[in-house]
Amino acid sequence: MTTWNLSETKHHVLICNGSSCMRKGGEEATQAFRDEITKLDLDSTIHTTRTRCNGRCKDACVAIVYPEGTWYKGLTPELSREIVQKHLVKGEIVEEAVIYQYENDSFTPPVNSKSIKGIEKPVKENV
Description:
Elements: E1 11-16, H1 19-23, H2 26-39, E2 46-51, E3 63-66, E4 70-72, H3 77-90, E5 98-103, E6 106-108
Helix pairs in contact: 2-3
């Protein structure tokens, strides 16, 4: 296994490779992210990680960009390259594909989001 030196990393992209996302092009989206990052010579500043499930299967394929905490949906190879070029290089959010953005200490959906809200996580009471 490789142990990367991440000291120059400015962005971390978590790309869902769970079963729903893989059925909807997760492998192609992952490769497009990585190819565009390499093409633009950004390997030392952008790190990608395949995840098993990001918990938004209805929005497949999903990726999360950190440190901003921006969740993207419906990834295609074209959208993946656009996220690299606009968000990761220029700092411009690709608004039409956003599910959530981290602001005010929580993840907030866009005002006109067409994504489903999803089920609430159970609250555990202290015993």
